[in-house]
Amino acid sequence: MYLKIHDNPAGKVVAVCDAELIGKILKDENGYMDLEKYRSFYVGEKADEGKVKKALGSFDSANLVGKKVVGIALDMGLASSDDVNYINRIPYIQLYKI
Are 59 and 3 spatial neighbours (Cβ–Cβ below 8 Å)? Predict the structure, then answer.
């Protein structure tokens, strides 16, 4: 997985994408996601499950793409399976803390 943390005036954004999805374009009747164009948004450091869990322990918003990372968020109780969206059977989720 790739992990990148964006700190900005609006807060901390955690972006994580399963490594094998970087560079792909996902498109079907449910939506469109260009993981080549937005590569720099997700590609920071390679991260294992422990690093991802630590990053997801504190965020203002999170963008998660892929089976591994979405599974981690679900296991942590940050979302339910009803919150997950799919493009080409690839799960993704956006989380916001308010």
Answer: no
